[in-house]
Design a protein that fits this description.
single chain; alpha+beta; 434 Repressor (Amino-terminal Domain); Immunoglobulin-like; 5-stranded mixed β-sheet
Length: about 425
């Protein structure tokens, strides 16, 4: 007796097996999945068995396959890419029957058929059989040749304009019971659903801002016929209206004239927002500054400008890029000399002389100017200042910010004149 031949090692699981294993691992049934995905249990079962002959056309099948894979937590693209291309030859039942037995069985079947035909001829019913077969073939040809019908009931308009808050569109329609509906957007996304037993189907489409085009087609899973030309719906979601940020300017007022000091700034904008000030004089000289609002949106400060007539533009920019703008014309004049000091870094000790006399606001022993603190000194012709650290202060002379003076940490004295000159001083 011949020993039975050894069976080949089992191949790696196919896509259908992977789908089945993923479903069973989640404890799901075809009926439960069908109710949620609107895909018939028979098609789900055919995909798991890779029964290509029982599945719809490839373009529709891939959409169903992606939907099923995504529901099971698999990579839809990888599953679709690895799907086979055609039906297997021969059934599992046939491959398990020895060739001799199959031949004997087929011979017996043929003999039986011949005997039956002879009986039919003897009874005179062959003509009736041929007539019924012909009618059946004609009906099937008409059925296969006719594309499935599809109708979009809602929205009825081909182009629909929606408000900026709309995020989802619902499309509803009718088709033959069990017809597969393919909805494809202009960016390549595809969604499939199935008409229920009464022929009704519906699907939700996510929308973004602007225009979204959707094409709807149908497939008869029994015949493989498609609806041909797709039905199109266009959804236009209005873009939100951008609102400019708040900007209420209280000071400077129009035509303000400032003598020997900074331009006072008072305004209200968005909480914690930033307002830029762009000042341009008659000679085209530009001075830039910025102010930050507090938690209530209020801003108060000073804008130091040299003498001259200035056009000051205040700008507030919102998070969406919109800009609010207010312009004021101001005039700055200086009589004599004005020096403004603001503590910088570690600050500095100072002593000052106004027009040759110890400045009373500073005193003979001087004062310490800490970081962030400010002090303004005014005189007729000159102001002399002794610095413990000249780099420890930001200095403005008659509204003009000066370059850093001296060396860091080295005590020095400087004389500031009404004609704008800055000279070294012998004051101690």
């Amino acid at each position: 007796m011949n020993e039975p031949s050894e069976l080949p090692p089992s191949a790696a699981p196919g896509i259908g097996a992977r789908l089945r294993e993923a479903r069973e691992a989640r404890g799901l049934t075809h009926t439960a999945i069908s109710a949620e995905l609107r895909i018939r249990p028979a098609i789900l079962d055919a995909m798991e068995r890779e029964d290509h002959a029982s599945l719809p056309e490839r373009v529709y099948l891939l959409g169903l396959l992606r939907t099923y894979a995504r529901h099971l937590g698999l990579d839809p693209g990888a599953v679709a890419a690895a799907w086979g291309g055609g039906p297997q030859s021969g059934s599992a039942a046939e491959t398990g029957i020895p060739l001799a037995d199959r031949a004997q069985r087929d011979g017996a079947t043929t003999t039986g058929l011949r005997a039956a035909l002879r009986s039919l001829f003897g009874l005179g019913v062959v003509g009736i059989g041929v007539l019924f077969a012909t009618v059946f073939l004609v009906v099937q040809l008409i059925r296969f040749a006719s594309p499935p019908g599809i109708s979009v009931v809602s929205p009825s308009e081909e182009v629909l304009t929606l408000s900026s808050e709309t995020r989802v569109a619902v499309i509803r329609g009718t088709a033959g019971a069990g017809t597969i509906i393919l909805i494809q957007s202009g960016v390549g996304d595809a969604v499939t659903t199935e008409a229920d037993t009464s022929g009704i189907w519906s699907v939700e489409i996510p929308l973004g801002g602007g225009r979204t085009e959707v094409d709807i087609s149908a497939l008869d899973p029994a015949t493989g016929a498609s609806s041909g030309v797709a039905v199109r719906r266009v959804f236009i979601v209005e873009l939100p209206i951008s609102e400019a940020p708040r900007l209420d300017l209280l000071s400077p007022t129009a035509g303000l004239r400032v003598s020997g000091g900074a331009v006072p700034i008072a305004l209200t904008s968005e909480p914690n927002g930033t307002v830029r000030a762009i000042a341009v004089d008659s000679n085209g000289v530009e001075v830039l500054s910025s102010f930050t609002a507090n938690s209530s949106g209020a801003i108060q400060g000073d804008l130091s400008l040299p003498a001259g007539t200035w056009s000051v533009k205040f700008q507030a920019t919102g998070p969406n890029g919109t800009v609010s703008e207010v312009v004021r014309e101001v005039e700055v004049v200086f009589a004599g000399v004005t020096v403004n000091l603001v503590g910088n870094g570690g600050g500095t000790w100072i002593r000052a002389w106004t027009d040759g006399v110890i400045d009373s606001s500073v005193g003979p022993t001087g004062v310490t100017l800490r970081a962030g603190e400010s002090r303004t000194l005014r005189g007729s012709t000159a102001i002399d200042i002794r610095f413990g650290n000249p780099r420890g202060a930001v200095i403005t002379l008659n509204g003009r910010m000066l370059e850093p003076l001296g060396a860091a940490g080295v005590p020095e004295s400087w004389s500031f004149r009404d004609d704008g000159r800055v000279l070294s001083s012998a004051r101690k």
